[in-house]
Every structure is written in C-alpha cells, then in structure tokens.
C-alpha cells in the first residue's frame, strides 16, 4: 500500500510532469472507482493542470478549480506514460487499468493510468471543488511529518490502543501505514503491542524521532524517482517489514512476523520486545 513517502513522491512527479498540461480526455474503465458524480468527470476536459497535492495517503491533481483525488488503497498505483495509447478503455474488461487521464490530445501526449491489481477493488476516485468535502479527508488527523514532540504526546494521550494500531489510524495520525509503522517502531525500539497511553517520556521521544527520521529519509529517497521505480525504492529501504526470517540489521536476531487474516507485520524480538516472541494473531493470544 502506498504510504506518505510514496504518495508525496507521486505528487512531486505530477508537479514536475503534469502541471501546465491540458486534460485531453479521461477514460473510466471501472465505474465503481468513481465516488462522486457531480461535477462529471468530463468537466476536466480542456482545462489545465495547476498543481498536485497530498493529504495523508490521498493524492490529488488540481485542474483549475477542481481536484481529482484518489486513494490508491492496498493494490492501487499511478502509472505514468510519456505517450499514452489513444485507444479508449473498455469498461468491464480484465485490464488492471481503472482510469486513464490523457494530458493533451489522445495518442499524442503523456498522461497516467490509475491501476489496481487483485480481486479486492478498493481504489477510489473523487472529483470535487473542495478536497475537504470528502469525509475521509476531512476526518484525517495531523500529518505525520507535521507533528512536534508535544503534538505527538497530545494525540496519543488517553489512547488505550496498541501503538501499532494507533499510529496507523488515519484519524489519529495521517500518512503512516503497515510498512512504515513497522520501520518506525523498530527504530524506536518499541513493541508493536505496547499500549499507546503507557509509553514513557523517553519512549515518546524515541517514537517521535523515529517517525520523523524514517519518513523524512523515505521521502528523500523517493522524491525524484520515476513512478515506475517507487515500489522498488520502498522495498530497498525497509529493514524489518516484509523481511520475516532475515537477520535484523541492528542486532542480528531473526525478524519475526505476526499474521492476521489479511495482513501481517514484522518486528525484531531483541530490539523491540526484550526477546519475547509475539504469537501469530491467528492463534488469538500473545505468548507470555
């Protein structure tokens, strides 16, 4: 799933390559991705791209007074092309392409596809004149990179949830998902199952430092990359996430995994849990 660094890099890519170009045509192959109908998607045609923005993990292309906003969800992506095919997309086909945006005359200009792999179709697109008219954006917590140490303490205060769950709740902190939360907690040396409201001042300081360091480093590595290389860049920078069974780069212990029905996360026992092995969540309890 694209998280704050990748979405920021995609926004940067659109600022550098799409701003100033006119929208020639928008093809929609999967009508289910469109979550708004007024204004219609055809309202973009003929108008010039004026900016690109990010709200948490939401990506927006500004076209005049309108904003084409997408949430890429777990398996969505933006695929840029310097020369898009002019052939219209066929609605209901088996192609992973859900929407195509031509930035100029079709067949003679660049543009991008919004794609989604897999069978769980969660990619979402809105066309609005105010991004905060989208309830999911209006309800976002503060952006992860905007938080001061005191801000982080304030947003976690009174929250009894496990820290892994809390910092990935977009209504609490916007932008962090499964992968970077694993990385942040590893750097901070905090168990994913630690209670958010029981973190010591030292742990809160370490968490804030790790959050800013991990995300800033990932943004720095991602911005400027082509959209096609961002996924590989993300994987290359991960130290524990998706590295089950491999040695921790800090202490050499084996990276372990906790699995749920439809996702998993990784951690280092030595660095984060005082050597304790956390039970697979499908076993429903934590090993003592």
TrEMBL record:
All residue ranges annotated as the FPG-type domain in the record: 239-273
Entry-linked SMART domains: Fapy_DNA_glyco, H2TH
GO BP: base-excision repair
Keyword DNA-binding: yes
PROSITE patterns documented for this protein: FPG_CAT (PS51068), ZF_FPG_2 (PS51066)
Superkingdom: Bacteria
Family statement: Belongs to the FPG family.
Protein name, entry field: Formamidopyrimidine-DNA glycosylase
């Amino acid at each position: 799933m694209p998280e704050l660094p990748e979405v920021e890099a995609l926004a940067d890519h659109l600022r550098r390559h799409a701003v100033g170009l006119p929208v020639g045509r928008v093809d929609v192959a999967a009508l289910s991705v469109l979550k708004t109908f007024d204004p219609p998607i055809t309202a973009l045609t003929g108008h010039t791209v004026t900016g690109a923005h990010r709200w948490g993990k939401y990506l927006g292309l500004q076209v005049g007074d309108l904003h084409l906003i997408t949430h890429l969800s777990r398996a969505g992506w933006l695929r840029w092309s310097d020369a898009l095919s002019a052939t219209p997309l066929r609605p209901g086909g088996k192609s992973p392409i859900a929407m195509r945006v031509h930035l100029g005359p079709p067949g003679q200009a660049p543009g991008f596809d919004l794609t989604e792999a897999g069978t769980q179709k969660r990619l979402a697109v809105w066309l609005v004149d105010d991004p905060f008219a989208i309830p999911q954006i209006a309800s976002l917590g503060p952006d992860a990179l905007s938080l001061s140490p005191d801000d982080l303490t304030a947003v976690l205060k009174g929250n009894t949830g496990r820290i892994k769950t809390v910092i990935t709740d977009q209504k609490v902190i916007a932008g962090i998902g499964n992968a970077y939360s694993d990385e942040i907690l590893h750097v901070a040396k905090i168990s994913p199952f630690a209670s958010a409201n029981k973190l010591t001042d030292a742990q809160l300081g370490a968490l804030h430092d790790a959050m800013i360091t991990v995300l800033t480093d990932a943004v720095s590595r991602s911005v400027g990359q082509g959209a096609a290389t961002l996924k590989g860049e993300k994987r290359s920078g991960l130290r524990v996430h998706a590295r089950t069974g491999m040695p921790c780069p800090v202490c050499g212990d084996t990276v372990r995994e906790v699995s749920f029905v439809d996702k998993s996360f990784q951690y280092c026992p030595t660095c984060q849990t005082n050597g304790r092995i956390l039970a697979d969540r499908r076993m429903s309890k934590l090993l003592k």
